């Protein structure tokens, strides 16, 4: 880690705790900043804040007092989930205080080069794939970022011989200024988080910030299946390296069931350890990065063939009486569920779907669910999901929650069938996040087996 002096004796406010806020506060403290942490959770119920205070870091909990910003902070580092219309953020910006997320801090002190991965779907799987392939190829890759390991924590132990493989959300990227990955990947772009960004254009602009500081010496991996990516390829100074499952490109591509990189066969598509057309895209993006960093083909092939997926993202759970269970709780939108279904024979799938009602219809899902053996439907959006099922001619059963849905799906299944939790909806109508929803599914499968 570079022990920079940019923050020495400067007052910095960390807004919002969780893992990333704690990591940012500790990194800033280590760099000599005068740190104040402000978190909405009451101090008596906030063990993270209590530990920070014990370690000599000032904490203010229970509310977000606007007058706190009158202390003339040099910087505000906010939790990525805090919106820019938050009164504290608005006042900071009005006062000319820079507002960052912790990944900007991580970049400033990093000795290791960064591979940054963003996109609407597939970024967690692709991030994990890349790290595993690089490590299989003899490089030292460290996972961090939106994948659950705060970048500003991991970076403190990383050396110049390491590589930070960093998953980045649009929320995180909006809080960057000088952030510069050596290689950047945008897996795909579909309308997401519009309640936060306001429009698709603004959402794309946030994702596009990943390449803002890149030059021709840096590599930008783009999904040329998408017209948006093709258009954006002309708007960057980076060297563009495309991937595609639809045509031969000057990068990584699928042709006749085989994966190639610039004309060189890497592996057959059916050798990839996880099913689904979306995982072919993820593998192609991974191959593009790996080849750019000099990983040999055998290491790429062995690693991708052994890849077992990511928890809650098309995760194989177990097989009971010949019925396979897959946990795809991370599929919080229609496209993610479409991708998940592409890896299975619909005639042998019982799909569990439904969740937070955002007011959208599910007509786009109709072609993908046509031919399903059955659906089990739950959540606020159940009526809308059932309308799509009716249009597709698919029978369905109602469920009270994920555990109930899992039991009912298993009762409907026969040997050789698959029970797939792929909700096409966010989880917040019933569960705190998709991880909790997925854990309920895992526990229900475990109880069925018992």
Automatic annotation (TrEMBL):
It catalyses: UDP-N-acetyl-alpha-D-muramoyl-L-alanine + D-glutamate + ATP = UDP-N-acetyl-alpha-D-muramoyl-L-alanyl-D-glutamate + ADP + phosphate + H(+). SUPFAM superfamilies: MurCD N-terminal domain, MurD-like peptide ligases, catalytic domain, MurD-like peptide ligases, peptide-binding domain. Residues 117-290 form the Mur ligase central domain. NCBIfam families: murD. This is UDP-N-acetylmuramoylalanine--D-glutamate ligase. It comes from Streptococcus suivaginalis. It is found in: Cytoplasm. One of its GO terms (biological process) is cell division. The keyword Disulfide bond does not apply. It is an enzyme of class 6 (ligase). InterPro entries: Mur-like_cat_sf (IPR036565), Mur_ligase_C (IPR004101), Mur_ligase_C_dom_sf (IPR036615), Mur_ligase_cen (IPR013221), MurD (IPR005762). Residues 312-424 form the Mur ligase C-terminal domain.
């Amino acid at each position: 880690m570079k022990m920079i002096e940019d923050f020495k004796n400067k007052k910095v406010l960390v807004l919002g705790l969780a893992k990333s806020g704690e990591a940012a506060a500790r990194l800033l403290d280590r760099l000599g900043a005068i740190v104040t942490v402000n978190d909405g959770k009451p101090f008596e119920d906030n063990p993270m804040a209590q530990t920070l205070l014990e370690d000599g870091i000032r904490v203010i909990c229970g509310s977000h007092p606007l007058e706190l910003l009158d202390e003339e902070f040099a910087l505000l580092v906010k939790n990525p989930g805090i919106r820019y219309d938050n009164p504290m953020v608005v006042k900071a910006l009005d006062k000319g205080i820079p507002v960052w997320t912790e990944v900007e801090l991580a970049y400033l002190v990093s000795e290791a080069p960064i591979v940054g991965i963003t996109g609407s779907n597939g970024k967690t799987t692709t991030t994990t794939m890349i790290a595993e392939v690089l490590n299989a190829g003899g490089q030292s890759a460290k996972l961090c970022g939106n994948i659950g390991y705060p970048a500003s924590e991991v970076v403190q132990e990383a050396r110049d011989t390491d590589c930070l493989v960093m998953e980045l959300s649009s929320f995180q990227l909006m809080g960057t200024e000088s952030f510069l990955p050596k290689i950047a990947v945008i897996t795909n772009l579909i309308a997401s988080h519009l309640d936060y960004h306001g429009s698709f254009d603004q959402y794309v602009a946030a994702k596009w910030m990943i390449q803002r500081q890149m030059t021709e010496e840096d590599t930008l991996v783009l999904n040329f299946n998408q017209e948006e990516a093709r258009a954006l390829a002309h708007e960057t100074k980076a060297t563009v390296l495309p991937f595609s499952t639809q045509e031969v490109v000057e990068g990584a591509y699928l042709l006749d069931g085989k994966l190639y990189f610039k004309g060189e066969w890497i592996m057959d598509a059916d050798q990839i350890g996880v099913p689904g057309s979306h995982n072919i895209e993820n593998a192609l993006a991974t191959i593009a990065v790996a080849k750019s960093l000099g990983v040999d083909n055998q290491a790429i092939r062995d690693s991708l063939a052994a890849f077992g997926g990511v928890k809650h993202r098309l995760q194989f759970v177990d097989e009971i009486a010949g019925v396979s269970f897959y946990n795809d709780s991370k599929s919080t939108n229609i496209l993610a569920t479409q991708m998940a279904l592409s890896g299975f024979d619909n005639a042998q799938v019982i799909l569990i779907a439904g969740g937070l009602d955002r007011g959208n219809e599910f007509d786009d899902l109709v072609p993908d669910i046509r031919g399903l053996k059955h659906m089990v439907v739950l959540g606020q959006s159940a009526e809308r999901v059932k309308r799509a099922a009716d249009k597709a001619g698919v029978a369905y059963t109602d469920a009270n929650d994920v555990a109930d849905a899992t039991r009912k799906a298993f009762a409907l299944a026969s040997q050789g069938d698959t029970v797939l939790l792929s909700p096409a909806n966010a989880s917040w109508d019933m569960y705190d996040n998709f991880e909790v929803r997925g854990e309920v599914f895992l526990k229900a499968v475990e109880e069925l087996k018992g």
